[in-house]
TrEMBL record:
Taxonomic source organism: Nocardioides daphniae
GO BP: L-histidine catabolic process to glutamate and formamide; L-histidine catabolic process to glutamate and formate
Record's protein name: Histidine ammonia-lyase
Catalytic activity: L-histidine = trans-urocanate + NH4(+)
The keyword Disulfide bond appears for this protein: no
A cellular-component GO term for this protein: cytoplasm
Keyword Lyase (UniProt): yes
PANTHER family from the UniProt entry: HISTIDINE AMMONIA-LYASE (PTHR10362)
HAMAP family: His_ammonia_lyase
Gene: hutH
PTM annotation, UniProt: Contains an active site 4-methylidene-imidazol-5-one (MIO), which is formed autocatalytically by cyclization and dehydration of residues Cys-Ser-Gly.
GO MF annotation: an example: histidine ammonia-lyase activity
SUPFAM superfamilies on file: L-aspartase-like
Length: 519
């Protein structure tokens, strides 16, 4: 059955971040715009002319990769395209998430719609129909080197278009592709000249994962500000270091945005005001408190750089060869280096923001550094362990994030008999970034959970209105109340859900500056 969600219209221009998330995560259907239909038909005319010519044309009437020197006779060209898709659908390992496959398919369709690939309209239309009907090809974890595009993942999607391979229907049931197509009233296509190559030669998988990671990090970095503000407040830190004139002497935009957000979060705090007296002898807060905007801000600026790269890639038509006017030209635009680099940059960002978050959490638990709070925020220290092991969980995740921050894009293993002798490993960079974003979500959630308990233990002093609303949100969700030890894992998972959904940031009511708006 078709989705009832609004359709995204795919034309010759780039897909937006919002449109990609709507299709990938929220099941929006897809319609090809009139300009896309016209562009596809124009390019197909060029391919049909070349297919009839005696002169060999790569991808149209020749083999592929290291086999490009063989001229393929007309009667074998349909078999050539089928063989290409079948042989390249060589993925292995666990299934890739549904949202990743849908993002990959949408971005491949967006490239087809530019009129630079030479596919036929029925082929492009069927890909749109799969998205609209919620039919998701099974794509495996391993198989892409991030050069010549995400070949194996895209091939598994192309396989479904010819009625082969496995898919999951809109309800998530695993079945043969032919069965799912028939149930939706769709017919598989028989690929013509150039079409198999056009369907599998792009950076769509790594790009889709990059766009979704940027969307997630926009939310997470603003939520990390909320967690930091709660920690500064609960640990009796000062907000004076976040003043605009101090940020102006080092004019990084992300730093200024984070500092302004921290000030807004801490405005009106009785806890902060309580130690603005001559009795306070501390000169400076620890780095993990004082330098929060420097770290969170550098992370924001790095995400903004990644966003620029993603926007350029979304505006690209990645294929080889490409149709340019009335000719077809070979090129190297399928190389994933630009995307792979920023995917690795963002894994570094996730690791470091998580690292400073864990350090703030740890300060709450140490009576030598938490300024009057009980050890581990325990109800009866010794009998109760409080949040001791929550910090262990954070530390385990941060340790993994540091390992995941090792770049994938510096590696290369030659393939295709040395024809493809330098590859980007961008798919691998994207896969590990997804784990990094999940880990950062969990680390920030544990900081929010711990800081909320610390603020409650500062009573009768009241926290700032913004941070107080977050404490109340957690209380309403049944977590963070000080008291005797209880099963902590469900509380952590509840906090993770509140962070991931944006509920924590919405409760704070400050929003933060920069990044995508919250839904």
């Amino acid at each position: 059955m078709q989705t009832t969600t609004p359709h995204v219209r795919v034309g010759t221009g780039p897909v937006s971040f919002t449109e990609l998330v709507a299709v990938a995560r929220h099941g929006a259907g897809v319609t090809l715009a009139d300009d896309a239909v016209a562009a596809i038909e124009r390019a197909r005319g060029v391919i049909d002319t070349l297919a009839e010519a005696e002169t060999p044309s790569y991808g149209v009437s020749t083999g592929f990769g290291a086999l490009a020197t063989r001229h393929i006779p007309v009667e074998l060209r349909a078999q050539l395209q089928r063989s290409l898709v079948r042989s390249h659908a060589a993925g292995s390992g666990p299934e890739v998430e549904r949202e990743v496959v849908r993002a990959l398919m949408l971005l491949r369709l967006s490239t087809l719609a530019t009129g630079h690939t030479g596919v036929r309209m029925p082929t492009a239309q069927l890909m749109a129909d799969l998205l609209t009907h919620g039919i998701t090809p099974v794509v495996r974890e391993y198989g892409s080197l991030g050069c010549s595009g995400d070949l194996a993942p895209l091939s598994h999607c192309a396989l479904a278009l010819i009625g082969e391979g496995e898919v999951r229907d809109a309800a998530g049931e695993l079945m043969p592709a032919a069965q799912a197509l028939a149930a939706a009233g769709l017919e598989p296509v028989e690929l013509a000249a150039k079409e198999g190559l056009a369907l599998i030669n792009g950076t769509d998988g790594m790009l889709g994962m990059l766009v979704m990671a940027i969307s997630d990090l926009d939310l997470l970095l603003r939520t990390a500000d909320v967690a930091a503000a709660m920690s500064v407040e609960g640990l009796l830190g000062t907000d004076r270091v976040f003043a605009p004139d101090l940020q102006a002497v080092r004019p990084h935009p992300g730093q200024a945005a984070s500092a302004a957000h921290l000030l807004a979060l801490l405005e009106g705090s009785e806890v902060v005001a309580s130690h603005r007296t001559p009795d306070c002898t501390r000169v400076q807060d620890a780095y993990s408190l004082r330098c929060s905007p420097q770290v969170h801000g550098a992370a924001r600026d790095t995400v903004d750089h990644a966003r620029l790269v993603a926007e350029r890639e979304l505006a690209s038509a990645v294929d080889n060869p490409v149709v340019l006017g009335d000719r077809v030209e070979s090129n190297g635009n399928f190389h994933g280096a630009p995307v792979a680099y920023v995917l690795d940059f963002l894994a570094i960002v996730a690791a470091d923001v998580a690292s400073i978050s864990e350090r703030r959490t740890d300060r709450f638990l140490d009576p030598a550094r938490n300024h009057g709070l009980p050890p581990f925020l325990a109800h009866d220290p010794g009998v109760d362990s409080g949040h001791m092991i929550a910090q262990y969980t954070q530390a385990a995740i941060v340790s993994e994030l540091k390992r995941l921050a090792v770049p994938a894009s510096v590696d290369s293993i030659p393939s295709s008999a040395m024809q493809e002798d330098h590859v980007s490993m961008g798919w691998s960079a994207a896969r590990k970034l997804r784990r990094s974003v999940d880990g950062l979500t969990r680390v920030v959630a544990i900081e929010v959970l711990t800081a909320a308990r610390g603020l409650q233990l500062r009573a009768p002093l009241r926290p700032a209105p913004a941070t107080g609303r977050v404490v109340e949100l957690l209380r309403e969700a049944g977590v963070s109340e000080p008291g005797q030890d209880r099963w902590l894992s469900p509380e952590i998972e509840a906090a993770v859900d509140l962070v991931r959904s944006g509920a924590v940031l919405r409760a704070a009511g400050t929003g933060g500056t920069g990044g995508a708006p919250l839904g």
